[in-house]
Specification:
The protein contains 11 helices and no strands. Helix 2 crosses helix 9 and helix 2 packs across helix 10. About 20% of the residues are buried. The structure holds protoporphyrin IX containing FE. The site of protoporphyrin IX containing FE (HEM) has 24 residues, from helix 2, helix 5, helix 7, helix 8 and helix 9.
Length: about 260
């Protein structure tokens, strides 16, 4: 064999006593990191939407994460710690997903031709997940970095000022659609891949899972849009007082005594 042929065949591969388990391990790692990120996103959307209840309620949730009710003092560094874990999961998940990206135009053409030929919903969903996943590299990174370095600037006025006066709302609007599509398809694909919630009739359970997937995506999109609108509204009303931190009514009275 020539050296070139060796490289093409994979040096030493044919002498290997057994096949590598690493591709399977990487698949499990990708599924687990995706599941954790998906579950985190559900929690995140509920916590962030606390603003729909009241400014005071959102403040309470924020301070809870900063350990205020436990230590008697807020420690925003705790939030940075959580963000750091999410960043590690996010990077790991993205790195593992890179294996599945078409590596050149020929691979892309082959996939594209198969997708059109099959006309199968799940193959099209995979393509949508690839596109939204790629967009997330760029859309989620600024948000995560902001949360990592300024955890103390999360709150009813602080977040609303960022969304409106800081001009973050267009990014959040696009990110919301991209992440909800990506997460919804991802969790659906996980269920199909590992056989969760599958009944005796595979086709019927797929249809059921797809309906559940769309229902969840629509629910989180509506919740997210209402939440974003609330931050924009508060931010607009607060535009002349940008930078003023939120103080809950009870503490304002204490300061005023
Ligand atoms: C621990 C990590 C995270 C924290 C602490 C966090 C926190 C927040 C907060 C406080 C807001 C309200 C706006 C603001 O203050 O700027 C927000 C909004 C948002 N975040 Fe995150 N976030 C995190 C991770 C993520 C990730 C990983 C994604 C998606 C990949 C994401 C997507 C969004 C979206 C789409 C909005 C707009 C919400 C809406 O329209 O309802 N966040 N986040």
């Amino acid at each position: 064999m020539t050296p070139n042929a060796d490289v093409i065949a994979g040096v030493g591969l044919k002498e290997r006593p057994r096949k590598s388990r690493w591709p399977a391990r990487m698949d499990v790692a990708q599924s687990v990191s995706g599941l954790l990120l998906g579950l985190f996103m559900w929690g995140h959307m509920f916590f962030v939407s606390s603003i729909l209840v009241s400014e005071k309620f959102m403040w309470t949730i924020t301070k809870m994460f900063e350990g205020y009710f436990f230590f008697g003092k807020p420690y925003p560094i705790i939030v940075s710690g959580v963000v750091a874990v999410i960043i590690i999961l996010f990077v790991m998940h993205a790195l593992l997903a890179l294996r599945k990206f078409p590596a050149n135009y020929r691979q892309y053409q082959a996939f594209s031709a198969h997708r059109k030929l099959f006309g199968h919903t799940d193959t099209t969903l995979w393509w949508l997940q690839f596109l939204t996943g790629f967009a997330l590299f760029f859309l989620a990174s600024p948000h995560l970095f902001q949360m990592l370095v300024h955890p103390g600037l999360i709150g009813p006025f602080e977040s609303s000022d960022r969304v409106w006066s800081g001009g973050w709302w267009p990014l959040y609007l696009i990110l919301l659609f991209v992440v909800e599509l990506h997460g919804g398809i991802g969790l659906y694909r996980l269920a199909v891949k590992w056989g969760w919630l599958s009944g005796a009739d595979a086709d019927a359970s797929r249809r059921r899972l797809q309906r559940a997937k769309w229902a969840l995506t629509i629910f989180f999109l509506v919740l997210g849009l209402a939440t974003l609108a609330a931050y924009m509204k508060i931010g607009y009303a607060h535009r002349d007082k940008v930078g003023e931190l939120y103080v809950p009514p009870a503490q304002q009275q204490e300061v005023g005594k």
